[in-house]
Amino acid sequence: MNKRTAIALSDRRESKGFTLIELLLGVTISVMIFLATGSVIALLFRTDIKSKNIESLEQTKNNLSAELTTSARWGELITIIGGQELIVDSSRYTLLNGKILKNNEPLTSDDITITRFEIKDFSNSTKLKSLEIRIDMQNKNFTSVKDTFNIVVSQRQREFDK
Amino acid sequence: MNKNNKWAMALSESDESNGYIILEVVVFAMVVLSVVPMISFLLRRTAQSRFESRAAALLQEGMEASYNIFMSNWDAYQVDGTYHPGKSVTNKWVLFSGEQQNLETLFTRSITIKKACRNNNGQLINNQEAVCIGIRDSDSRFITTSINWEEQGKPKSLEAKILLTNLNE
Which range marks the domain in which residue A120 is found? Predict the structure, then answer.
Protein backbone atom coordinates (compact mmCIF):
# COMPACT_ATOMS: atom_id res chain seq x y z
CA MET A 1 0.00 0.00 0.00
CA ASN A 2 1.47 3.38 -0.84
CA LYS A 3 1.63 6.22 1.68
CA ARG A 4 -1.32 8.21 0.29
CA THR A 5 -3.68 5.24 0.43
CA ALA A 6 -2.54 4.47 3.99
CA ILE A 7 -3.25 8.06 5.12
CA ALA A 8 -6.67 8.10 3.40
CA LEU A 9 -7.66 4.81 5.06
CA SER A 10 -6.43 6.08 8.44
CA ASP A 11 -8.41 9.33 8.09
CA ARG A 12 -11.56 7.45 7.08
CA ARG A 13 -11.26 5.23 10.16
CA GLU A 14 -10.84 8.33 12.37
CA SER A 15 -13.89 10.13 10.91
CA LYS A 16 -16.18 7.03 10.96
CA GLY A 17 -17.79 7.94 14.30
CA PHE A 18 -17.77 7.12 17.99
CA THR A 19 -17.34 3.80 19.56
CA LEU A 20 -20.22 2.23 21.49
CA ILE A 21 -18.53 2.87 24.81
CA GLU A 22 -17.98 6.56 23.99
CA LEU A 23 -21.62 6.85 22.96
CA LEU A 24 -22.93 5.22 26.14
CA LEU A 25 -20.64 7.38 28.26
CA GLY A 26 -21.78 10.52 26.45
CA VAL A 27 -25.46 9.67 26.87
CA THR A 28 -24.98 8.84 30.57
CA ILE A 29 -23.16 12.08 31.26
CA SER A 30 -25.78 14.07 29.33
CA VAL A 31 -28.62 12.46 31.28
CA MET A 32 -26.84 13.19 34.57
CA ILE A 33 -26.34 16.83 33.59
CA PHE A 34 -29.99 17.17 32.54
CA LEU A 35 -31.19 15.58 35.79
CA ALA A 36 -28.94 17.84 37.88
CA THR A 37 -30.08 20.95 36.01
CA GLY A 38 -33.72 19.92 36.27
CA SER A 39 -33.39 19.33 40.03
CA VAL A 40 -31.79 22.72 40.52
CA ILE A 41 -34.55 24.45 38.55
CA ALA A 42 -37.26 22.56 40.48
CA LEU A 43 -35.58 23.49 43.80
CA LEU A 44 -35.41 27.13 42.74
CA PHE A 45 -39.08 27.08 41.80
CA ARG A 46 -40.14 25.42 45.09
CA THR A 47 -38.01 27.82 47.16
CA ASP A 48 -39.57 30.78 45.38
CA ILE A 49 -43.12 29.53 46.07
CA LYS A 50 -42.31 28.78 49.73
CA SER A 51 -40.67 32.18 50.11
CA LYS A 52 -43.78 33.89 48.69
CA ASN A 53 -46.08 31.93 51.03
CA ILE A 54 -43.95 32.85 54.03
CA GLU A 55 -44.04 36.49 52.96
CA SER A 56 -47.82 36.34 52.66
CA LEU A 57 -48.00 34.95 56.20
CA GLU A 58 -45.67 37.71 57.47
CA GLN A 59 -47.80 40.35 55.77
CA THR A 60 -50.96 38.97 57.41
CA LYS A 61 -49.18 38.97 60.77
CA ASN A 62 -48.14 42.62 60.31
CA ASN A 63 -51.66 43.65 59.29
CA LEU A 64 -53.30 41.91 62.25
CA SER A 65 -50.70 43.31 64.68
CA ALA A 66 -51.26 46.85 63.41
CA GLU A 67 -55.06 46.59 63.50
CA LEU A 68 -55.40 44.98 66.95
CA THR A 69 -52.64 47.09 68.54
CA THR A 70 -54.05 50.41 67.34
CA SER A 71 -57.61 49.43 68.24
CA ALA A 72 -56.88 48.18 71.78
CA ARG A 73 -54.28 50.83 72.59
CA TRP A 74 -56.60 53.78 71.95
CA GLY A 75 -59.94 52.18 72.75
CA GLU A 76 -62.03 53.44 75.65
CA LEU A 77 -63.90 50.27 76.53
CA ILE A 78 -62.39 46.81 76.10
CA THR A 79 -64.35 43.62 76.74
CA ILE A 80 -63.21 40.02 76.36
CA ILE A 81 -65.87 37.36 75.85
CA GLY A 82 -64.95 33.75 76.48
CA GLY A 83 -61.28 34.46 75.75
CA GLN A 84 -62.04 34.26 72.02
CA GLU A 85 -63.95 37.40 71.23
CA LEU A 86 -62.67 40.94 71.66
CA ILE A 87 -64.82 44.04 71.71
CA VAL A 88 -63.12 47.44 71.57
CA ASP A 89 -65.70 50.25 71.63
CA SER A 90 -67.85 49.49 68.56
CA SER A 91 -65.43 47.01 66.93
CA ARG A 92 -65.97 43.29 67.43
CA TYR A 93 -63.17 40.83 66.59
CA THR A 94 -64.04 37.14 66.31
CA LEU A 95 -62.74 33.96 64.70
CA LEU A 96 -65.09 32.25 62.25
CA ASN A 97 -64.38 29.59 59.62
CA GLY A 98 -60.62 30.13 59.81
CA LYS A 99 -60.82 33.92 59.41
CA ILE A 100 -60.61 36.78 61.86
CA LEU A 101 -63.60 39.06 61.39
CA LYS A 102 -64.01 42.68 62.41
CA ASN A 103 -67.72 43.45 62.62
CA ASN A 104 -68.35 40.42 60.37
CA GLU A 105 -65.87 41.63 57.72
CA PRO A 106 -62.78 39.41 57.19
CA LEU A 107 -59.40 40.86 58.14
CA THR A 108 -57.44 37.90 56.76
CA SER A 109 -57.11 36.71 53.15
CA ASP A 110 -58.49 33.51 51.62
CA ASP A 111 -55.11 31.78 51.39
CA ILE A 112 -54.49 32.03 55.18
CA THR A 113 -56.33 29.91 57.76
CA ILE A 114 -56.42 31.13 61.36
CA THR A 115 -56.49 28.13 63.69
CA ARG A 116 -56.43 29.97 67.04
CA PHE A 117 -57.48 33.43 68.25
CA GLU A 118 -57.14 33.72 72.02
CA ILE A 119 -57.22 36.81 74.24
CA LYS A 120 -55.98 36.99 77.83
CA ASP A 121 -55.94 39.93 80.23
CA PHE A 122 -52.80 40.49 82.33
CA SER A 123 -53.57 44.02 83.46
CA ASN A 124 -52.59 45.31 86.92
CA SER A 125 -55.66 47.51 87.31
CA THR A 126 -59.29 47.52 86.32
CA LYS A 127 -58.93 50.94 84.67
CA LEU A 128 -56.40 50.03 81.99
CA LYS A 129 -56.44 46.70 80.22
CA SER A 130 -53.28 44.93 79.08
CA LEU A 131 -53.95 42.12 76.65
CA GLU A 132 -51.99 39.21 75.24
CA ILE A 133 -53.56 38.07 71.97
CA ARG A 134 -52.36 34.73 70.63
CA ILE A 135 -52.89 33.91 66.95
CA ASP A 136 -52.00 30.64 65.17
CA MET A 137 -52.19 30.65 61.37
CA GLN A 138 -51.18 28.56 58.41
CA ASN A 139 -51.19 28.72 54.63
CA LYS A 140 -54.27 27.01 53.22
CA ASN A 141 -52.45 25.31 50.32
CA PHE A 142 -49.13 24.60 52.06
CA THR A 143 -49.98 23.64 55.63
CA SER A 144 -46.27 23.28 56.48
CA VAL A 145 -46.03 27.07 56.18
CA LYS A 146 -47.43 28.23 59.52
CA ASP A 147 -46.73 30.67 62.32
CA THR A 148 -47.78 31.47 65.87
CA PHE A 149 -47.42 34.92 67.36
CA ASN A 150 -48.46 36.94 70.40
CA ILE A 151 -49.53 40.56 70.34
CA VAL A 152 -49.20 42.35 73.67
CA VAL A 153 -50.97 45.68 73.86
CA SER A 154 -51.84 47.98 76.78
CA GLN A 155 -54.70 50.40 76.81
CA ARG A 156 -53.44 53.97 77.01
CA GLN A 157 -54.59 56.27 79.81
CA ARG A 158 -56.75 59.09 78.50
CA GLU A 159 -58.08 60.61 81.71
CA PHE A 160 -55.99 61.73 84.64
CA ASP A 161 -56.85 62.02 88.30
CA LYS A 162 -55.19 65.39 89.09
CA MET B 1 2.69 11.51 5.59
CA ASN B 2 5.70 11.44 7.85
CA LYS B 3 5.71 10.94 11.61
CA ASN B 4 5.99 14.66 12.39
CA ASN B 5 2.88 15.52 10.38
CA LYS B 6 0.91 12.73 12.07
CA TRP B 7 1.97 14.02 15.50
CA ALA B 8 1.01 17.55 14.48
CA MET B 9 -2.46 16.38 13.35
CA ALA B 10 -2.99 14.34 16.51
CA LEU B 11 -1.96 17.27 18.72
CA SER B 12 -4.14 19.68 16.77
CA GLU B 13 -7.22 17.45 17.22
CA SER B 14 -6.50 16.99 20.92
CA ASP B 15 -6.11 20.78 21.32
CA GLU B 16 -9.56 21.33 19.76
CA SER B 17 -11.20 18.66 21.97
CA ASN B 18 -9.51 20.13 25.14
CA GLY B 19 -10.81 23.56 24.17
CA TYR B 20 -14.41 22.33 23.92
CA ILE B 21 -14.20 20.55 27.27
CA ILE B 22 -12.89 23.66 29.02
CA LEU B 23 -15.68 25.74 27.50
CA GLU B 24 -18.36 23.30 28.71
CA VAL B 25 -16.88 23.23 32.20
CA VAL B 26 -16.76 27.02 32.34
CA VAL B 27 -20.40 27.37 31.25
CA PHE B 28 -21.55 24.73 33.73
CA ALA B 29 -19.57 26.37 36.55
CA MET B 30 -21.10 29.75 35.71
CA VAL B 31 -24.63 28.32 35.86
CA VAL B 32 -23.99 26.56 39.18
CA LEU B 33 -22.23 29.56 40.73
CA SER B 34 -25.12 31.85 39.85
CA VAL B 35 -27.97 29.53 40.88
CA VAL B 36 -26.65 28.21 44.22
CA PRO B 37 -26.01 31.66 45.80
CA MET B 38 -29.47 32.76 44.62
CA ILE B 39 -31.15 29.86 46.43
CA SER B 40 -29.13 30.36 49.62
CA PHE B 41 -29.84 34.12 49.51
CA LEU B 42 -33.60 33.51 49.26
CA LEU B 43 -33.53 31.08 52.19
CA ARG B 44 -31.32 33.35 54.33
CA ARG B 45 -33.45 36.42 53.62
CA THR B 46 -36.59 34.57 54.73
CA ALA B 47 -34.91 33.41 57.96
CA GLN B 48 -33.52 36.89 58.75
CA SER B 49 -36.86 38.65 58.45
CA ARG B 50 -38.43 36.08 60.81
CA PHE B 51 -35.77 36.74 63.50
CA GLU B 52 -36.34 40.47 63.32
CA SER B 53 -40.10 40.01 63.33
CA ARG B 54 -39.89 37.87 66.48
CA ALA B 55 -37.51 40.34 68.12
CA ALA B 56 -39.91 43.21 67.36
CA ALA B 57 -42.80 41.28 68.94
CA LEU B 58 -40.75 40.63 72.11
CA LEU B 59 -39.75 44.30 72.19
CA GLN B 60 -43.39 45.37 72.01
CA GLU B 61 -44.31 42.93 74.77
CA GLY B 62 -41.68 44.48 77.07
CA MET B 63 -42.80 48.04 76.33
CA GLU B 64 -46.52 47.33 76.72
CA ALA B 65 -46.11 45.33 79.93
CA SER B 66 -43.94 48.10 81.42
CA TYR B 67 -46.52 50.75 80.50
CA ASN B 68 -49.33 48.86 82.23
CA ILE B 69 -47.22 48.17 85.33
CA PHE B 70 -46.14 51.79 85.87
CA MET B 71 -49.51 53.32 85.01
CA SER B 72 -51.05 51.08 87.67
CA ASN B 73 -48.37 51.57 90.33
CA TRP B 74 -45.85 54.31 89.68
CA ASP B 75 -43.44 53.44 92.49
CA ALA B 76 -43.61 49.65 92.04
CA TYR B 77 -39.97 49.33 90.98
CA GLN B 78 -36.71 51.18 91.68
CA VAL B 79 -35.19 53.33 89.00
CA ASP B 80 -31.68 52.73 87.61
CA GLY B 81 -32.42 49.03 87.60
CA THR B 82 -32.46 46.27 84.99
CA TYR B 83 -35.53 44.05 84.78
CA HIS B 84 -37.42 41.72 82.49
CA PRO B 85 -41.21 41.24 82.17
CA GLY B 86 -43.10 38.19 83.30
CA LYS B 87 -46.45 37.07 84.68
CA SER B 88 -47.34 36.61 88.33
CA VAL B 89 -49.27 33.63 89.71
CA THR B 90 -52.35 35.88 89.71
CA ASN B 91 -51.96 36.49 85.94
CA LYS B 92 -50.72 40.05 86.11
CA TRP B 93 -47.67 41.64 84.47
CA VAL B 94 -44.68 41.97 86.79
CA LEU B 95 -41.02 42.88 86.39
CA PHE B 96 -38.32 40.48 87.60
CA SER B 97 -34.76 41.56 88.39
CA GLY B 98 -32.03 41.12 85.83
CA GLU B 99 -32.11 40.42 82.11
CA GLN B 100 -33.95 37.51 80.58
CA GLN B 101 -31.76 35.05 78.71
CA ASN B 102 -32.47 32.25 76.23
CA LEU B 103 -35.83 33.74 75.42
CA GLU B 104 -37.27 31.51 72.67
CA THR B 105 -33.77 29.89 72.80
CA LEU B 106 -32.25 32.83 70.94
CA PHE B 107 -32.97 36.23 72.47
CA THR B 108 -31.87 38.19 75.53
CA ARG B 109 -34.30 40.84 76.78
CA SER B 110 -33.82 43.58 79.37
CA ILE B 111 -35.79 46.61 80.55
CA THR B 112 -33.99 49.52 82.18
CA ILE B 113 -35.70 52.27 84.12
CA LYS B 114 -34.16 55.70 84.51
CA LYS B 115 -35.45 58.94 85.99
CA ALA B 116 -35.63 61.92 83.69
CA CYS B 117 -33.49 64.98 84.27
CA ARG B 118 -34.81 68.46 83.37
CA ASN B 119 -33.45 71.98 83.26
CA ASN B 120 -35.12 75.04 84.83
CA ASN B 121 -37.33 75.41 81.74
CA GLY B 122 -38.63 71.86 82.15
CA GLN B 123 -36.75 70.53 79.11
CA LEU B 124 -35.16 67.11 79.25
CA ILE B 125 -31.37 67.00 79.60
CA ASN B 126 -28.71 64.31 80.25
CA ASN B 127 -31.42 61.68 80.35
CA GLN B 128 -28.98 58.77 80.06
CA GLU B 129 -26.34 60.00 82.51
CA ALA B 130 -26.11 58.72 86.10
CA VAL B 131 -25.54 62.24 87.43
CA CYS B 132 -28.30 64.75 86.74
CA ILE B 133 -26.95 68.27 86.25
CA GLY B 134 -30.46 69.72 86.34
CA ILE B 135 -33.51 68.72 88.34
CA ARG B 136 -34.49 65.06 88.76
CA ASP B 137 -38.08 64.58 87.61
CA SER B 138 -39.56 61.87 89.82
CA ASP B 139 -42.78 61.93 87.79
CA SER B 140 -41.08 60.98 84.53
CA ARG B 141 -39.35 57.73 83.71
CA PHE B 142 -37.44 56.51 80.67
CA ILE B 143 -38.26 52.88 79.97
CA THR B 144 -35.81 51.26 77.56
CA THR B 145 -36.42 47.75 76.26
CA SER B 146 -33.54 45.96 74.51
CA ILE B 147 -33.52 42.70 72.60
CA ASN B 148 -30.19 41.08 71.67
CA TRP B 149 -29.47 37.97 69.65
CA GLU B 150 -26.84 36.41 67.40
CA GLU B 151 -27.29 35.67 63.74
CA GLN B 152 -24.60 33.68 61.93
CA GLY B 153 -22.14 34.66 64.63
CA LYS B 154 -22.90 38.39 64.35
CA PRO B 155 -24.56 40.25 67.27
CA LYS B 156 -27.87 41.96 66.47
CA SER B 157 -30.07 44.15 68.64
CA LEU B 158 -33.30 46.11 68.72
CA GLU B 159 -34.06 48.85 71.22
CA ALA B 160 -37.07 51.03 71.99
CA LYS B 161 -37.43 53.80 74.54
CA ILE B 162 -40.53 55.55 75.88
CA LEU B 163 -40.95 58.41 78.31
CA LEU B 164 -43.69 57.76 80.85
CA THR B 165 -45.12 60.64 82.86
CA ASN B 166 -47.21 60.19 85.97
CA LEU B 167 -50.01 62.74 85.89
CA ASN B 168 -52.02 61.02 88.60
CA GLU B 169 -51.94 61.93 92.27
Answer: 77-162
Looking at residue B23, its pLDDT comes to 75
Is residue A28 domain-resident? no
For B28-65, the pLDDT digits (tens) are 788 778 777 777 776 666 666 668 888 999 999 999 99
Which residue out of B45, B72, B139, B168 would a mutagenesis test of the A interface target, given it has the greatest number of A Cβ atoms within 10 Å?
Answer: B72
User: Chain A closest CA to B59's CA: distance in Å?
Assistant: 10
How far apart (Å, rounded) are the C-alpha atoms in residues B53 and B136?
Answer: 36
Give the residue among B168, B162, B110, B105 at the shortest CA–CA distance from B139: B168
Q: How far apart are CA B131 and CA A146, in angstroms?
A: 49
- Total-model pTM: 0.73
Is A162 within 8 Å of B167 when comparing Cβ atoms? yes
* A89 vs A159: which has the higher pLDDT: A89
Question: Is A132 contained in some domain?
Answer: yes
What was the ipTM of the complex prediction? 0.72
Check CB contact under 8 Å for B1 and A7.
yes
- A142 interface with B at CB cutoff 8 Å: no
